[in-house]
Amino acid sequence: MKKCFKFLLAVVVVLSGLYLFPTGSASAEGKEVGGTYYIDVTAATIWTAPNLLREVDKYSATNPVDLRKWTTSMTYQDKLGLVGKLETQALYGAKVTVLENNGDWVKVAVHTHPTPKSEVGYPGWMPAVQLAKDKSFENQLHRPFALVTSPTAWLYDEKRAENEFLELSFNTRLPVMQEFENEVLVATPSDGKKWLKKSDVAIYNHEQDIPSPTGNDIVETGMKFLNLPYLWAGTSGFGFDCSGFTHTIYHANGIVIPRDSSVQATHGTSVERKDLQPGDLVFFAYQEGKGRVHHVGVYIGDGKMLHSPNSSTHVRIDDIEAAGYGKEYAGARRYVK
């Protein structure tokens, strides 16, 4: 299979001591500026500029990627080194528009991540090898889609689910080709049809068919990720930053909110502290709450929030009055009715 070949090629090159990343035969040449493409890896990590990769980042820059190995191989200092260098992540099958080319890198706009930075979507740089453009995939996008609801889920080569093909993240969406009692046949961006376990997904005809969530639904979704390590710019079941966490759990419930906490804090409906309800987003800002918003969490009730705090820790529950947060409380927003 194509992905197996590319993975073996990456291994051979690494073992030979000649590792040059990103691995793969595709380059930015041929990626048409203004063209629409689709993410062809579990999650593409979007950088502030091309060619910023460190040796430890090689697992995130190939096709396929190994995000679990990437996140677990980084030290705390390695994780801190990502701060300010990453923009966001885009999940398998997500649509992007190419904005610029630079060698083996492309600047893209991620359509599903609203931002004031671009009307098209969240902009940033990624390896061109992680993009695909396949008419057979595009032609299936009108179909019902499978939404991954497990923290991660495997795509399989066959219906009996014995040969694992690719581990997907929560909130990944793929067109449904056929639905069975326990399995779902889906289209992929460049590798034809693959299988998902039905227990890992929800199936909808259209985005608007996702049931309108309650605040408690938002909290319940977020609780799936307790203890998941923090990852700057992360938007996947392999690691979240604070606003990537809130953006993703809302998106999986059919509500698209801005990607960054500072922008999330200006949308939705303002909520007084005394009126906080589960599912509301609570914000924290420098200068004792009067400066720039730098953090967001999900209120869960009883004065507590569920959040992904920083590179030293993981998704957890804290009191909104906890040290480092209480004095910086900057208000709340509600995105559910």
From TrEMBL:
Domain of life: Bacteria
Keyword annotations of the record: Hydrolase, Protease, Signal, Thiol protease
Secretion signal, residue range per the UniProt entry: 1-28
Domain NlpC/P60: 212-336
InterPro entries, sorted: NLP_P60_dom (IPR000064), Papain-like_cys_pep_sf (IPR038765), Peptidase_C40 (IPR051202), SH3_16 (IPR041382), SH3_YKFC_2nd (IPR057812)
Record protein name field: NlpC/P60 family protein
Recorded family membership: Belongs to the peptidase C40 family.
Pfam families registered for this protein in UniProt: NLPC_P60 (PF00877), SH3_16 (PF18348), SH3_YKFC_2nd (PF23795)
